[in-house]
Amino acid sequence: MPLALLALAIGAFGIGTTEFVTSGLLPEVADEFGVSIPTAGYLTTGYALGVVIGAPILAVLGSRVPRKKMLMALMGLFVAGNAISAAAPVFGVMLAGRIVASFAHGAFFGIGAIVAAGLVAPQKKAAALAMMFTGLTVANVVGVPMGTMVGQSAGWRVTFFLIAGLGVLAVLGIAALVPQQPRPEQTRISGELAAFRNPQVLLAMAMTVLGFGGVFTMTTYFTPMMTDAAGFASSSVTWLLVLFGLGMVVGNLIGGRFADRALMPMLLTALGGLAIALALLPVATHDKIATAVVVPLIGALGFATVPPLQKRVLDQTADAPTLASAVNIGAFNLGNAIAAWLGGLVISAGFGYTAPNWVGAAMAASALALALVSAALERRTGAQGAAGAPSARDGRIVAQPERVTT
For residue 183, how many other CB atoms are within 10 A of its CB? Predict the structure, then answer.
């Protein structure tokens, strides 16, 4: 794999740390600003919605900027947002800083995915995407637990200042390791928007919203769920987050490896397993060992869906991928926002801190249903292709020989 993928992984590490670290620091932030846990959960919802809004806007604005320069500019925005959060005097300012940082998220991964896929042979695209997203998963093994530990001992503000420093390191890494990219071809906005007329693209994005969104019903309220419901000490949350992160690393690499071989079977397996694992967690919280087994399993199954879904969108939009790639990253975070909101609703309704997992299980099961629809549509399109129409096979549009009539 090209060394440039390391630079992209560094940026992903910083973004992953800031995205997930609030799950471990939610009680500390809520206490300092005098808000409830569900209200503090808006830091996750706001971040996710910021990704959804910022991804298409910045992808379009940066479509004519050399991709290396755009990636560096996005990380500069990320640094500014985290610095605002760290210095926030009131909850509203911290939320604003989260939104500023989130604007960099979708466009960075969307543009970074195009760069990563372009650095390798076509049959290694998913593996290259998984390598970039490894930074995001490693953040959950190292960055998030360390950020949680630092936040609980030295204050959550220190954590966010350190995350801003990670952003500076990412800018330097991109400058040093990513090769100069040619200016993107002058693709018309209408060409980028045309991708959204493809039903397979829309189905993939809907699967993205529902699939990984289900994971966030657990992660948003992870700390109170583990301490109040499962009975773990606050100091144990860090190590449970490490287990969750290790699961994400393994799932990401497995998803990238098998998506290049059998994309839809990989996706169906991961989504089905994720729905089952999320449904099991409320039961597992009655036993600490069972909880420690199910938590990393959810991380593995959840992130095993990421490389295949992103590759599927890129394969279906090969002529104009920038906007669709960024929007699909936004779709991950739209699912996160919906999950955090729904999770807060069931907690506020008095169903307890484990209840959001039932919501997550329902979301993952819905994504599985859409994946089955997508596979059926793909088979039908393939059958039509045999009669001379284009066919879709494993996310690739295969042109059929032109039929000549006399």
Answer: 10
